[in-house]
Amino acid sequence: MKKGVVLSLVIICIVLLASCSVSKSIVGSWTDDAGSSFNFYKDGTLTINSGLLSTSGTYTFIDNDTMKVQLDGLLGIGGATVYDVEISKGELRLNTAGQILILTKSD
């Protein structure tokens, strides 16, 4: 009986840890190698500042590791972009159609 309870508790802990999703981990400030800043907010909005260019938009997670980004203004004319997302050790990797953007956590 005790083994069954312990096994159930272990399974519950694994499920809870797995539910700590990328969507929550992405919130905050990130920078790329060129010094551009990417800010993801809890409410699903984002801002990008790159020298003279600044834009905003929204992001939503399709599943735990796939994100859709819709930029505002002229940069958003082409429609939303879907990214495969991976976060590990303070590094955010956004991959779309083989193009990978690597960002580093800055806060």
First CA to last CA: what distance? 46 Å
The whole-angstrom Rg is 17 Å
Q: Structural class of the secondary structure composition?
A: alpha+beta
CATH topology: Lipocalin
List the helices and strands and how they pair.
Layout (H helix, E strand, L loop, with lengths): L1 H17 L3 H4 L2 E4 L5 E4 L4 E6 L2 E11 L2 E6 L9 E8 L2 E6 L2 E7 L2
Antiparallel strand pairs: 1-2, 1-8, 2-3, 3-4, 4-5, 5-6, 6-7, 7-8
Overview of the molecule:
- By secondary structure, the chain is α+β, with helices and mostly antiparallel strands.
- It has one domain (22-105): Lipocalin, CATH 2.40.128.
- The chain contains 2 helices and 8 strands, in the order ααββββββββ.
- The chain has helices at 2-18, 22-25; strands at residues 28-31, 37-40, 45-50, 53-63, 66-71, 81-88, 91-96, 99-105.
- Strands 1-2-3-4-5-6-7-8 form an 8-stranded antiparallel β-barrel.
- β6 and β7 form a beta hairpin.
- The protein is globular, with a radius of gyration of 17 Å.
